[in-house]
Amino acid sequence: MYAVIVSGGKQYRVTKGDTIYVEKLDQDADSTVTFDVLMLGSDEGVKIGTPTVQGAKVEGRIVGQVKGEKIVIYKYKSKKNYHRRAGHRQHYTKVEITAVG
Known about the structure:
This protein is mainly beta. Helix content is 0%, strand content 63%.
């Protein structure tokens, strides 16, 4: 059984036991989080929600808060002696999916 969930404006296809990285959630480690289910798939078929599937839920356990890889931003204008360099690391929440149903 699998589900398509939404978190932080992005959609994820998950099954039980998966580990995903979602946009940062303001919750502590080892707390439980519930996601909205957009689609639920199993051997019998697929249920598509309008916009969510009624009665379906996906639960996950927050493993921790992590940072993504560093992205270098470089601005440059030719012949003007202008250049700026900056870096960015996006904050993510690592979530382990514990139940799909």
